[in-house]
Amino acid sequence: MSNDQAGRQSHSSPSSEENSRVGIHTQYAAICFREAADRDDRQIEILLITSRDSGRWVIPKGWPMRKKQAHEVASIEAWQEAGVRGSVRKKTWGSYLSMKKMEDGEIIPTVVEVHLLHVEEMDDEFPERKQRVLRWFSPANAVSAVREPDLGELISKLDLHQSQTVRKNSKVRAASPGIVPR
């Protein structure tokens, strides 16, 4: 196994090389999120896109790319499929199993390794603009919209993590003299 593959491998899931030997493939994805513009409590919104085949709500994802690390692939796919750019987390946030329907109709088991992408800008023009619908969801509505329960759990985990971070930061501001919490 190369150093590049070892760096992408999480402790709880096999590498993409090991997966392909047993008939499981790997894709890399991004949960794209932003702070809700109309909220003072810094709640987040999750971007979901429609799949090209069935129109179900999914997150941007794609196959490994030569000479690209997993988080780089997730970022590239987020731009190609949703037109978003931002800061992507290198460390895998989690993974879930998906049954990927191929163009020939074959269904293959796929481990989807998920990275977080904090959206900083959205382009009006991107490669798959005419093939997908994009919509921002509250975390709870995003969990309900996706079909994969494990993906829903990763979205819930992000919502919980963000809520705890906001509460912790608010307590620090409140304890600091001269700083009024938002």
What is the secondary structure topology, with strand pairs?
Elements: H1 3-8, H2 16-21, E1 25-35, E2 44-50, E3 57-58, E4 61-62, H3 70-82, E5 84-88, E6 94-101, E7 107-122, E8 134-137, H4 139-145, H5 149-175
Can you tell me about this structure?
It is built from five helices and eight strands; from the N terminus they run ααββββαββββαα. A hairpin with a 6-residue loop joins strand 2 and strand 3. Helix 4 packs antiparallel against helix 5.
Sum up the structure in keywords:
single chain, 182 residues, alpha+beta, 8 strands, disordered C terminus
Low-confidence stretches: 1-14, 170-182
Number-wise, the strands total 8
Order of helices and strands: HHEEEEHEEEEHH
* Rounded Rg: 18 Å
* Proportion of residues in β-strands: 25-35%
Q: Share of helix among residues?
A: 25-40%
- Tell me, briefly, the overall form: globular
Main sheet? 8 strands, mixed
Helices, by number, come to 5
Distance between the termini: 49 Å
Rounded average pLDDT: 83
> Structural class per helix/strand content?
alpha+beta
